[in-house]
Amino acid sequence: MRFDSSASFMPFVRYRIALGLAIIALVAAGALSPHAAESAGRRARPQGAVTHSIAGA
Question: Which of 8, 32, 9 is closest to 20 using CA atoms?
């Protein structure tokens, strides 16, 4: 707990900004697709599909 109160938050902020810029650059360059999860082999659920069930129903 002492680390939380004494450490600076700036390294985390810099890391998140750098990661965000890297992802934006990869998407802009075409190396990363914003729709990668859709084409990763997962089947798309039909519209209106039930995503969960209630036990015993």
Answer: 32
Would you put residue 56 in left (φ > 0), alpha (ψ -120 to 50) or beta?
Answer: left
DSSP letter string over 3-50?
A: HHHHS-SHHHHHHHHHHHHHHHHHHHHTSS-TTTTTTTTPPPPPTT--
Q: Which two tokens stand for residue 51?
A: 């995503």
* C-alpha atoms less than 13 angstroms from C-alpha of 56 in its C-beta half-sphere: 0
How far apart, in whole angstroms, are the C-alpha atoms of residue 36 and residue 14?
26
The pLDDT tens digits for 11-46 are: 999 999 999 999 999 999 988 888 877 766 655 565
Instruction: Please state the pTM of the whole predicted model.
Output: 0.52
